[in-house]
Here is the input.
Amino acid sequence: MCELFCLSSRQPTVATFSLERFAARGGLAGHTIDGWGLALYDDADLRLYREPEPARDSRWLQFVQGRRLPSRLLISHIRHATRGGVRLANTQPFAREIGGRMHVFAHNGRLEPLLQPGAPRPRRFRPIGDTDSEVAACLLFDAMAGLWDAGTEPPLGRRVTLVSDFAASLRPLGPANFLYSDGHHVYAHGHRRTQAEGRIAPPGLWLLRRECAADADALPQAGLSLDTGSGPQQVVLLASVPLTDEPWRPLGEGELVVAANGTLLEASRGQPA
Here is the structure.
């Protein structure tokens, strides 16, 4: 299984990663890490760093951490390849421009039916690689583009409905945990994942809300450090597994949550596959 992480914060936040330790927290210790990606939003645009190799000795990751770039929204993905070759084209997050904004998608799970003959095929946004995750990303981007093509920002309610319907269409196909962002809002869908005992079962994502600066010790133990600056801070964290001993809340099977600027805007519980 791959590992997902997202941070949404009220104030710009600098995040630094030990991705190998972060991956181990999610159960990938001793497994091949086949790539990593990090999307840092800067208003409607983003800095996207991806490598189809482990992060242990990555000069790219050293560069990112040395820059100490603040962001209110970041999405990270660590890949353990189950489908598709170990190459850049298959490394998440996937990003496309829609409505003058960069949209990002990262997925955890297997959606093999999307690669079978007769499965829905994206039209406007075509996969570059050969993974089921990228097909799912392009299908969502296709659907979302229809809302943004009118030239104005679509109402949040319409976007939430579209993402919720899309998530419901994925759940019968396999584990469908994903993070999607339009540059302001992040939409997180929890489903099922391979648990420590080997069962494929919920939860697939966990959520934590913080109203103040991060604990100076807790997150670094999981391979993540946050510099939240000064002033009032609100943070929403989403991850494949709890990263600290704090009261992380498991997302229900088929639950969709939406956050922006460190605030949880809404949560809707879907139906299991």
